[in-house]
Automatic annotation (TrEMBL):
GO MF annotation, one: methyltransferase activity
Alphabetical list of InterPro entries matching this protein: SAM-dependent_MTases_sf (IPR029063)
Coiled coil region boundaries: none
Highest taxon, organism lineage: Eukaryota
Stated name of the protein: Methyltransferase domain-containing protein
Organism: Endocarpon pusillum (strain Z07020 / HMAS-L-300199)
Length: 359
């Protein structure tokens, strides 16, 4: 967590304006902290199923979604985000939310925001599931969620010159969604937030220092900002993942293609420095191990690993189709991508590979 020690327009001593950072350390310095279950088999499965399908009604300018090889992608600022925005991807995002909620032991956040936050922003809200859960838990808060894709549950549309506002009876009455690009100028300086939340922007942001400065400028003195992000490259602390594995090739090819376009795939390890440079204080970092698969012996770790494997398996095709057709120096064909996809999935389900991410 980090503080925005701002004295803007306040005669009193400002409290902490924090940003919570889920800090990612270099995997080489992180010892294996999960005991391996050597009885795990290829057929081990603890997978849950959480599926949620959303529909939206909004103007054609942001709903005219392009399709690439049968997958649907966002129309607003087309190409800014590599992953699809179709139902399959939305289901993956909701599974991902369940993964993080479980890993955080039933918490939506770590920041000590108190019981009555007034204005809250969820950056890149995705399906809006975190924002909806937060708005339900804190009815005192006016919650705003923004995203490039209008895939949140919506019926009513209100357009302004700068953004599109979405509301629906089925979402909490204190929650609104905006179609917006967080790398644009925000314009919230005169209506700052008590709490700003952002989760998993790896591969989606070009200018992280600017994003941090914008978050600082739009946070009230005494407010908090929480970033949860990671190094998207899987590693094995016991060196059980071969260097020539399909997983490593996946990171090199897909992640490398995105980085060549100017997007950071490993922001987690830099969050603390970026926040410090932006002017936040009282920065606190929490790290959580996220195993991939059910190889860990601990029951809770198995559950987390199963969620993680499920969402990664479901997201792989969209990641590859969103990056490798644009790879340099040679774009990949769909047939090549499908063969590669099968190889990666095989490695993901290999219980002898003890892969994990740091959150």
């Amino acid at each position: 967590m980090a503080n925005n020690d701002s004295t803007r327009g306040s005669d009193s001593e400002p409290g902490p304006s924090s940003a919570t950072v889920d800090f990612i350390a270099d995997s080489a310095s992180n010892p294996l902290a999960l005991e391996i279950d050597w009885n795990t088999t290829d057929n081990d499965s603890a997978y849950g199923d959480e599926v949620s399908t959303y529909t939206s009604s909004i103007t054609s300018s942001v709903m005219d979604f392009p399709e690439i090889e049968g997958r649907r992608y966002h129309a607003y600022r087309q190409g800014r985000y590599a992953l699809p925005n179709d139902e399959e991807e939305n289901e993956r995002l909701d599974i991902h939310h369940a993964l993080i909620y479980t890993a955080m032991e039933g918490r939506l956040f770590y920041a000590p925001i108190g019981q009555s936050p007034q204005r809250v922003l969820d950056i890149a809200t995705g399906t809006g599931i975190w924002a909806m859960d937060f708005a339900d838990e804190f009815p005192s808060a006016e919650v705003l969620g923004n995203d490039l894709s209008p895939t949140q549950p919506t019926l009513f549309v209100h357009q302004s010159l700068s953004s599109t506002m979405l509301t629906q009876d089925s979402v909490p009455p204190n929650l609104e969604f905006i179609v917006d690009d967080v790398e644009d100028e925000w314009g919230y300086e005169h209506q700052p937030f008590d709490f700003i939340h952002a989760r998993f922007l790896a591969g989606a942001i070009r200018d992280w220092p600017k994003l941090m400065r914008q978050a600082l400028d739009c946070t009230k003195p005494g407010g908090w900002v929480e970033f949860q992000d990671w190094d998207t490259f899987l590693y094995s602390a016991d060196n059980s993942m071969p260097l020539d594995s399909a997983i490593n090739r996946f990171h090199q090819m897909s992640g490398g293609a995105r980085e060549a376009m100017g997007y950071s795939m490993c922001p987690g390890r830099h969050l603390q420095r970026w926040m410090t440079d932006a002017g936040f204080i009282n920065i606190s970092c929490t790290k959580i191990l996220l195993p991939l698969g059910t190889w860990a012996k601990n029951r809770q770790a198995k559950k987390i690993g199963a969620y993680n494997l499920l969402q990664m398996q479901q997201g792989l095709e969209g990641i590859l189709l969103g990056t490798l057709p644009h790879a340099k120096p040679r774009p990949w064909s769909k047939d090549e991508i499908m063969v590669f996809l099968a190889d990666i999935r095989k490695d993901f389900q290999n219980p002898k590979i003890h892969g994990q991410y740091d959150l």
